[in-house]
Amino acid sequence: MASVRHKQTAARRAATAPWRRRLVSVALPAAGLLTLTGVATAAVVHDADVTTASAGADVSQDQDIITEALEEEPTVSRGVEREPVPEVEPSKVKVTGRLVALHDGVTIHADASRTSPVLARLGQGDEVAVTGKRSKGWTQVVLKELPRWVRTKDVAKELPLGTEPCPGGSGVESGLQPDTIKVHRAVCARFPQISSYGGTAGRGEHATGHSLDIMISSDLGNEIAAFLQEHRAELGIEYLIWRQRIWRPATSNSWRPMSDRGSPTANHMDHVHVTVVGSSASYGG
Questions:
Q1: Distance (Å, rounded) from C-alpha 177 to C-alpha 272?
Q2: Given strand 155-156, what is the order of strands in its sheet?
Q3: Which homologous superfamily is 97-156 in?
């Protein structure tokens, strides 16, 4: 009897052995975990003759194999932070100098073409930084730290000093000395808002054409006087009178007060008076 039971137990173990080997072979690869679970369950259900105690022991062993395979499965985090892309500082345009607009309405273009977009407009005397590059009648300038373009003929190192007749006419230039004419043209080019001048007259240096009165009573006269002081040598200026003060560089570099002559005009409160040497400064026409 014992021999018969021994044979039955051996037969049952032999029947379940292939399923154990099959479970071991499929449990190790992580990609076959779901298939492994199905196979293990099928093995337990299929062997209906296996005793409850034996079946429970075999399933427990199979579950240990599955659990071990799950624990060994490598984990990949998809939330790993990447290193930030390094910020590249934009290249800065090299500035080589500055130019001024020769007239109002000078346009700054995106490219060296009149059909390219207009990005800004300059007034006469406005300064703009340049890079030193030119291209077929265009000069490269800098606008908001970016290279842009203006027509070369619209800009220069400085405004012209008396080289072109004034748009308002040259009638006042009749009888004036070459230097006086140059002062007139320089002032009207730099300060086009001035519309009235005094030329030759029957008194003092006005009679000889050496003096010019620039009619202005506002503080703009200060700017005009400073402009003439800056360009004294180029314009051949001997002295200036403005607001009851005189500036004569041959005797002093500072403005000096003058005595009261009795009226705003006599005290030069309504005009800047200029007296020139005559023809010491070069005259272009």
A1: 18
A2: 118-122, 106-109, 146-151, 138-143, 127-135, 97-101, 155-156
A3: SH3 Domains (2.30.30.40)
Domain residue spans of the chain: 2-72, 97-156, 171-276
Round to whole Å and give the CA distance between 16 and 281: 122
Tokens describing residue 241 = 């009178």
C-alpha–C-alpha distance, residues 182 and 161, integer Å: 7
User: What are the pLDDT digits (tens) for 125-167?
Assistant: 899 999 999 999 999 999 999 999 999 999 999 877 877 889 8
CB-CB contact of 227 with 187 (8 Å): yes
Instruction: Tell me the C-alpha distance between 80 and 64, whole Å.
Output: 32
pTM of the model: 0.51
3-state secondary structure of 195: coil
Which residues, other chains included, contact 271 with Cβ-Cβ below 8 Å and sequence gap of 6+?
Answer: 198, 213, 214, 215, 216, 217, 221, 265
pLDDT at 93: 83
Q: What letter would DSSP give residue 236?
A: T
Q: The tokens of 219 are what?
A: 């503080």
From 122-126, 161-165, 235-239, the region with the lowest mean pLDDT: 161-165
